[in-house]
Design brief:
about 160 residues, alpha+beta, 5-stranded mixed beta sheet, 3 helices, globular, binds zinc ion
Length: about 160
């Protein structure tokens, strides 16, 4: 029987003490049988275990980044952009393998658009969202602006080294 309690997930192997947010990191790359490549990026907003984005602000960021990341990555199929449960960043899944620096630039452009977003939040209705009252546009704008006060770097993966 496989041990289902401790899957060897990529994110559980990342040393969260040795990364420096905000950053973009190539977290995974998958090759399909027919040669298609799927890449998964770790878009980290805040330093793990030092800060976390409040739920309402992160939720609004999710709704806004859905459009702004796609706009910032023309010609790239965005499969998904979803917040991490730890509320320190997003996972971005793409068809294809753009350079990390290109994803970093797109992340910065999308955050800049979030910071300046005015008007309604897309999809923020009872019919279109699973928790439509739990949103904060002022929060999303402020957190995006605060992330952009620091340079977003390309972060290599730092695996946890077992010391035994
Ligand atoms: Zn929603």
């Amino acid at each position: 029987m496989p041990d289902l309690s401790a899957p060897r997930l990529e994110s559980f192997e990342l040393d969260h003490d040795k990364v420096r947010a905000p950053y973009v990191r190539l977290a995974a790359r998958y090759a399909g049988e027919r040669g298609d490549i799927v890449t998964k990026f770790d878009l980290r907003l805040v330093q793990p275990n030092e800060a976390e984005v409040p739920t309402a602000a992160l939720h609004t960021m999710e709704h806004l980044l859905a459009g702004y990341l796609r706009a910032a990555l023309p010609g790239v199929v965005v499969v998904d952009a979803s917040p991490m449960g730890c509320r320190t960043g997003f996972y971005l899944t793409l068809l294809g393998e753009p350079a990390e620096a290109a994803v970093r630039d797109a992340f910065a452009a999308a955050l800049s658009a979030v910071a300046g977003h005015a008007g309604a939040v897309p999809g923020c209705t009872r019919q279109r969202c699973g928790n439509w009252r739990d949103h904060s546009l002022p929060g999303a704008r402020a957190w995006a602006a605060s992330v952009l006060q620091r340079e977003i770097v390309v972060q290599p993966t730092v695996p946890i080294v077992d010391e035994d």
